[in-house]
Amino acid sequence: FVVTKTKMIEEIKYPRSLNADEYILDRSRSTFSGNNRDTFSSARTARTFSSARLLEDESILVRTISVAMKNFDPDLAVTCAALDDIVKHNGEGNDGDVPFPLGFARTTEFWKLIVTSGMVAVILAFVALGFVNCIDEVPTQWATCAYGNDRDCGDLYTGEFYWIGVTAGTGFCVGFLRYLFSYPDNLPGIFKDIQLCHVEPKWALLTFTLSAISISGGATLGPEQALGNLGGGLATYISQHIVQFSNSDHQKLFILAGMASPLGALFPAPMLGATMVMELSDPIATYMEFLIILSIPCTISFAVFYGMIGDTYTNFVSTQTQQLSVQWIDDQNFQGYMIMTGFAIGCVSAALSITSLVIVGVTKQIFKRIRSRLQSKGKFLTEVVPPVIGGIVIGAINWALPATVGNGKLIFSWIINFGTITHPLLSRNVLMCTGFARMVLLGVSMNSGFVGGIIFPLLTIGLIAGAVMFQMYPYLPVALCESTFMVSIACGFVPLPITFTVMSALLFFLGAYQSIPIFIAVVTSYTIVCGTGFLRTLSLRAQQQEDEENNNKTPAQNDSIVMSETTNPSFVERK
């Protein structure tokens, strides 16, 4: 019987949305009578069926039926009838196309997830508020130029010399904390954390602290790494020590909800925090169950955050920006050439993304060689000197190009107001120098020891590129240039096309047709950079070069590296 049914089931595509073990259990309960029904309804039977998840493939269905037959010897006709009903249901045409998932909201585990993640979201909303206030207010205390009202703030060599001391001091603080707590160099970033569905709680708070210091002190990094890491670390700790979930999938869902909830307070709408995590992670549950579990804590975090300050971190939109979108819709609305414009912007964005990656790779090699030379001098200098050097470089570039201060939040309105609206417009050369310098600062900040994310610096570079494009082609709508370029550079190697498209459309108050060039640009950019395998090729070449350098080192160099590692307290812990 099992062999026969195996052949039948292999010929059909079992619907993943249908939980077949529950279906067969209910079907059999309704058919059995007397002692057989009592036996089949026993706790042992329930455990057998609940332990066999039939959402993988058809072979699991057959194994589950064989286990049930072996343990309880049910009536063969009942099992055949249940399978026949499944086969019939799967091929009924329109009725078979409609997904009928198991009622996940009827389980206590689902509500345990919702309630626990909601409580965590409230805590993380207050944490996000303190973090955002810190990275927003502290830079304005030492970078005192009013970027939103003064177009001269970004002119060449108009910065202050003491900025170099501020950024160098920030580098020393970061390096000293890394040395004091033996902060590892190989911790995964937020993208890898989301894919692993795990954040090491031991380092989450320190990562959060280092990121707050780095961004407040002028590093060109974003807040998503700190908030996502802290939320995931808190959720990981709770799931391991306080609240126990029935299986590893529910634990992973809870951790992802913890990572997504503070992101709901960063973006202009809470759903973007959920879509960001969903686009970066592999599906753990059905689509709607996954979306609901992530969306509720994001909404709670957003509500608490917005209720306290009446704004979100990315809501840099001004009255002028709203007027730009209205002007685009009134003057040109949507025309066919905008499709090709979106494609062209995607191609240029891909080139700029590759340029950013090359610069990041070059700076990584530079600081790697600096650390290699310092390893023989001791762990303290190895940890402290690179961030100090990075801080000096950041401060010097900030002095020469004041519009490069911070992760870009200070100059969002400066770019839009004085780069595209208010005449006379900013010099195109100043904008291009500022954009390229920000690429360099992103690489220096990432590789010298500072801690933070990459999304928001890339958004700023995109805004600058959009202002340059408008100045070169003034007949194009300003909102088209800015909204499309803002996200397409970042999407060159960050796979968030839906999140970025919706975020840009919301920030610029765009209509449905106006979002078409944005989506075309982000898809084109990612296809060129990652879809063609170009990024992977660069990564493999860099790894190959690194392996060759390690093989070419002299025995004395290798001995010094081994000695410096073995004297590191974290070395024993890793072993």
Strand runs, count = 0
| Strand percent estimate | under 5%
Classify the secondary structure makeup into a structural class.
Answer: mainly alpha
Helix content: over 70%
Report on this structure.
With 575 residues, this protein is mainly α. The chain is built from 27 helices and no strands. It is globular, with a radius of gyration of 28 Å. The model is unreliable at 10-21, 27-58 and 554-575 (pLDDT under 50).
Question: Quick summary of this structure?
Answer:
This protein has 575 residues and is mainly alpha-helical. It is 72% helix and 0% strand.
Main attributes?
575 residues, 0% strand, 27 helices
List the helices and strands and how they pair.
Blueprint: H1 2-10, H2 20-31, H3 34-40, H4 43-51, H5 58-72, H6 76-90, H7 94-97, H8 108-142, H9 162-180, H10 190-196, H11 201-216, H12 224-241, H13 248-266, H14 271-280, H15 287-309, H16 319-331, H17 337-374, H18 379-400, H19 412-421, H20 428-448, H21 455-472, H22 478-488, H23 497-507, H24 515-531, H25 534-551, H26 555-566, H27 569-574
Helix pairs in contact: 1-5, 2-6, 8-11, 8-12, 8-13, 8-15, 9-11, 9-18, 11-12, 12-13, 13-14, 13-15, 14-15, 14-23, 17-18, 17-20, 17-22, 17-24, 18-20, 19-21, 20-21, 21-22, 22-23, 22-24, 23-24
